[in-house]
Amino acid sequence: MNLEKNSLVRLLVDENRATVLKKLSMHLPSITLNDHQLCDIELLATGAFSPLEGFLKRPDYEAVLDRLQLQDGTPWPIPICLGISEKQQRVLEAGQSLAIRDPEGFLLAVMHIEEIWPVDKGREAEACLGTTDRLHPRVHYLYTKEGDYYLGGKLEVLSLPLHYDFRQLRLTPHEVRTLYQKLGWKRIVGFQTRHPVHRAQFEMMLRAMRQARANLLLLPIVGLTLPDDLDYYTRVRCYQDVLRYYPPNTTLLSLLPLSMRMAGPREALMHAIIARNYGCTHFVVGHNHANPGIDGQGNAFYCNQHTAEMVREWSDRIGIGILVFEEMVYLPFEDEYRTRDAVGNGVQAISMSGTDIRLRIRTGRKIPDWATFPEVISQIQKAYPSPRQQGFTVFLTGLSGAGKSTIARVLYSQMLELGDRPVTLLDGDIVRR
Fold first, then answer.
1. Do residues 395 and 372 make contact, with C-beta atoms less than 8 angstroms apart?
2. Which of 157, 332, 342, 376 could pair with 11 in a Cys bridge, judged by C-beta atoms 3.0 to 4.6 Å apart?
3. Is residue 413 part of a domain?
4. Which domain holds residue 325?
5. Residue 375 to residue 383: CA distance in whole angstroms
6. Does 335 fall in a domain?
7. Alpha helices in 125-231 (DSSP H)
8. How far apart are CA 314 and CA 68, in angstroms?
9. Coil/strand/helix, residue 116
10. In the chain, how many domains are there?
11. What tens digit of pLDDT does each residue of 32-58 get?
12. What distance in Å separates the CA atoms of residue 433 and residue 425, rounded to the nearest whole number?
């Protein structure tokens, strides 16, 4: 892929235009973005969502739902729209400009509204997600948090959303491409994840690098994922610790502030487009890619084979090579990892998912050495200590003279006798003195 031909959309305005927009914003209606929308506007602004120049207008929105492409035929699988409430819709109209602010009131952008239309949430869920089952996290979001109307129009961005953590790792697509040029990298495989890197994922990345004869761009998602996922602070510390296991000078880490839709095949295709915008020549589609789990009938929301086939089908049009991997499993007698389809009959193979590892750590159970790295276990244990290491409070209430203080002193003495945790006793009568 020729990176020069794959140009990035960059919506950040220069200083002079920013001054004009700040003055203009004083006389404009404002909208405050939620966390999901903050992720979208950041990726629009930096060009990660290229070729989009703003939130989709209705003809593009309809084309995305029906044909996985914009009205002009450019591939794009997921609607990126700005939702508003019915109350907000009443005071806005097409042709108007709108100040877009973060929850603290800081001006991020000015949007030039071109269209406003009511959202058919059922149609969007069925077309984009393939289901209206509210166990699907994006379906639940559509029906409970998404606005009743969409705004479409171009953006002029004054500032990216503010971040105070891991700032040196929050690279834009342009910054990442510039690093490739400095490092002399020509072939890059992108790997996107919302989990810590365990040994199975690590082996998959090494195989992808060998297969593509490429360096690696690790793109962990630090936007919105699933509620029971590990917090991204813990995950990023895990990524930093695991980097030393890769071959020297082969891997680059850049955090991706993406709000996941968990849309299976469509989302995998969008991930591949984002990786292309970050300058990748190849992209890994792994087992259960962007699959939120099990539906109300006990079936997986998406078929792995369908996801792989769809992304491969579009790979030439989006300009990136696709590497598909089945589930990586561990062969204890060979002490190696293989993809499940490469395991012969009668050969013992075992696996442990990221969810399994997370649950084991949270419940204080042992993690085998073949499953993950000791640094990863250490980081997760610090963030999510086992029940015996967690603090708790015993709160005693009752009428005066009911024996609260006596019971508290008994508990206090018994727990100190056990000696496995520090204990503090706060007696209301003593505190009030």
1. no
2. 157
3. yes
4. 170-256+262-330
5. 13
6. no
7. 137-144, 173-183, 199-212
8. 10
9. strand
10. 3
11. 999 999 999 999 999 999 999 999 999
12. 15
